[in-house]
Design goal:
Length: 173
């Protein structure tokens, strides 16, 4: 719980705009990397939020090297999140790894009514601005691209481009 509070404080303090300035952004980078497993040479934007929900403590997040987490990226690691090297998450990308069972009682938010999932994002994948990755998605393959504003409801194979809501394959690379 101490680490969780520390993570939250660091995100509130170092997530603000002032840490965009050259030099100061190194400080943001340092503190995010102090409390999260994030590889070297990350670019971390404003208001990047990495969080777990409903008091779940089992989830985890591991992020590779040379990763872009652009402004307002939001990653729910109530489940497990593994992000490879050279991955780009453009502004406002949202990744979810928990959902609630569709029962009349889901409003109770009991731990047994919450379902968590594991997602792995391969090296060099690029998720465009505002893409939403729903819980239950297991992988986004290496070198895959998700178009801006897409809602991803299926696993995405390597070397493919997906776009739309729901996202569909629009081309191979
Ligand atoms: C996904 C993307 C990379 C595809 O680019 P592209 O290969 O040049 O694609 P095209 O323009 O040839 O489009 C192919 C088809 O997909 C559709 N399409 C492309 N991007 C789309 C998107 N984001 N949502 C829905 N449909 C999309 C096009 O309308 C077109 O449809 P059509 O064949 O029916 O005319 C690009 O559109 C995109 O979304 N880039 C992300 C931009 C971004 O987030 N920038 C932030 C930088 S950090």
């Amino acid at each position: 719980m101490v680490i969780e509070s520390l993570r939250r404080i660091i995100q509130i303090v170092f997530g603000i705009e002032i840490f965009e300035f050259p030099g100061l952004n190194r400080m943001r980078n340092f503190f995010y990397r102090l409390v999260f497993s994030i590889g070297k040479h990350a670019i971390i934007g404003r208001n990047v939020r990495l969080f777990r929900v409903h008091g779940l403590s089992s989830g985890s997040i591991n992020i590779g090297e040379h990763v872009l987490l652009a402004n307002d990226v939001l990653i729910d690691y109530s489940g497990k999140v593994i992000i490879g090297n050279h991955v780009w998450l453009s502004e406002n990308v949202h990744i979810h790894t928990h959902t609630h069972k569709l029962t009349k009682d889901r409003v109770l938010k009991r731990p047994e009514d919450i379902e968590v999932s594991t997602i792995e994002i391969g090296d060099k994948a690029w998720l465009g601005d505002g893409a939403i990755i729903l819980p239950g998605i297991e992988y986004i393959g290496e070198n895959a691209i998700v178009g801006a504003g897409s809602v991803v409801t299926k696993n995405i194979p390597s070397n493919t481009v997906w776009a739309g809501n729901p996202a569909r394959e629009i081309k191979k690379i």
